[in-house]
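Exercise 7b. C-alpha cells:
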C-alpha cells in the first residue's frame, strides 16, 4: 500500500511540474525552430588565391610560372612589339583580369577550373578553358588586327595556351568542382530602369578617368617596355566588339568595383548610375568590329546587353546596347524556360 501511494505521489508531482513549465517548454522549442528558419546557412564559398611561392619546382611549376608571366606581360609576347606575334592590340590579360587574375570582383580566374567545361549559349555547345582563353585572344586582345583580318588566336596546342591554362587551373586548384566562389568574375549590378546616359557618362569620365586613360581614351604606353601602363578603352588597340567588356553590364560592374584607381567593391568611388553611364560612354566610342555572325546560334538566348543582331525579340538595337535591360532580360528568361532544354 505504501509503495502504491509513493508511485501515485510521484506521478502527481510530475504532472504538476509539466503543467507549470509547459508554456516555457513550448516557447523554448518554438524559439529554436524559428531561429533556425530565420538564420540562413551561409553557403557562399570564399576563395583566396594561392601564394606564388606555392608553385612547385618542377616542369609543371615552370609551365605555371610562364602562364602567369603571359597573363601579366602579354604584350611582351603578343602585340605590336611582341616576341612571338605582332598581331594584337598590345594590351595585357591583366588589364581586364586584375592582379594576374586574382582580385576579388576584379574579373578573377577563381571559377574557371571548377566550372569549365560548361555549356555556353554564345557558342551553342560546351566550352573548355582552352577555348575560353583562345576567345580572349581574339576578342579582348584583338588579334584580328592583321591587315587581312585572318590572324587568329595561338594554336590550342601551343606552349603559350597550355601555360596560361596551367596557371588558371593552378589558381583554382582548391575550389570544389562546380562551385563558383564569391567574388569571381564581375558582379551583377542592379539594372537601371532607364537608358544609360552617354552624355553624363562622358562628363564623369572626364572628371574621374582621364588622368590615367587620357581624354582621347587611348591610354598611356609603358615608357620602358611593351604594353600599356594604362590601357586604351577604345580605338584599334583596345578590345573589339566581340569581347565581354563590350557588354554594358560587365563593364559597369568592373568599373564600379575597381575604378578609379584605389576603388574597391567595399569602398567604391562611383555610384551605380555613374558606373552604368561611364560604361555607356566608353561603349559608344569607336573600336574594331569583330564578325560575330557565328555567335549565338539561337538568337533568343542572347544576353540582354548584346549590342549586335540578329535578335529573336522585338526590342530595338539601342535598347539592347544602352538599356533599360530589365524588360529584355525578362523576355529572355521566359524564352529559355519555354523553349530550351536545361543544360547541365
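Sequence design result:
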Amino acid at each position: 500500500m505504501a509503495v502504491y501511494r509513493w508511485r501515485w505521489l510521484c506521478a502527481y508531482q510530475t504532472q504538476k511540474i509539466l503543467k507549470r513549465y509547459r508554456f516555457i517548454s513550448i516557447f523554448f522549442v518554438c524559439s529554436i525552430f524559428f531561429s533556425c528558419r530565420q538564420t540562413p546557412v551561409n553557403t557562399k564559398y570564399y576563395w583566396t588565391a594561392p601564394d606564388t611561392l606555392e608553385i612547385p619546382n618542377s616542369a609543371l611549376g615552370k609551365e605555371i610560372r610562364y602562364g602567369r608571366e603571359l597573363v601579366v606581360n602579354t604584350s611582351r609576347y603578343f602585340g605590336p612589339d611582341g616576341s612571338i606575334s605582332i598581331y594584337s592590340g598590345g594590351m595585357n590579360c591583366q588589364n581586364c583580369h586584375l592582379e594576374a587574375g586574382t582580385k576579388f570582383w576584379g574579373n578573377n580566374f577563381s571559377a574557371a577550373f571548377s566550372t569549365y567545361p560548361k555549356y555556353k549559349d554564345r557558342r551553342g555547345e560546351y566550352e573548355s578553358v582552352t577555348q575560353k582563353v583562345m576567345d580572349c585572344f581574339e576578342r579582348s586582345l584583338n588579334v584580328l588586327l592583321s591587315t587581312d583580318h585572318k590572324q587568329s588566336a595561338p594554336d590550342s596546342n601551343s606552349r603559350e595556351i597550355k601555360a596560361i591554362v596551367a596557371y588558371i587551373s593552378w589558381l583554382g586548384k582548391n575550389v570544389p568542382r562546380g562551385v563558383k566562389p564569391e567574388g569571381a568574375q564581375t558582379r551583377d549590378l542592379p539594372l537601371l530602369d532607364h537608358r544609360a546616359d552617354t552624355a553624363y557618362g562622358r562628363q564623369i569620365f572626364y572628371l574621374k578617368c582621364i588622368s590615367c586613360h587620357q581624354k582621347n581614351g587611348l591610354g598611356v604606353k609603358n615608357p620602358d617596355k611593351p604594353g600599356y601602363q594604362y590601357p586604351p578603352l577604345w580605338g584599334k588597340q583596345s578590345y573589339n566588339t566581340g569581347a565581354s567588356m563590350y557588354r554594358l553590364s560587365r563593364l559597369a560592374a568592373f568599373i564600379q568595383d575597381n575604378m578609379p584607381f584605389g576603388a574597391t567593391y567595399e569602398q567604391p568611388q562611383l555610384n551605380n548610375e555613374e558606373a552604368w553611364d561611364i560604361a555607356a560612354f566608353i561603349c559608344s566610342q569607336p573600336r574594331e568590329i569583330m564578325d560575330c555572325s557565328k555567335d549565338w546560334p539561337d538568337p533568343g538566348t542572347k544576353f540582354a546587353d548584346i549590342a549586335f543582331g540578329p535578335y529573336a525579340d522585338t526590342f530595338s538595337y539601342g535598347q539592347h546596347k544602352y538599356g533599360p535591360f530589365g524588360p529584355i532580360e525578362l523576355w529572355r528568361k521566359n524564352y529559355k524556360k519555354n523553349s530550351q532544354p536545361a543544360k547541365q
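Instructor comment: The chain has 13 helices and four strands. The mean pLDDT is 87.
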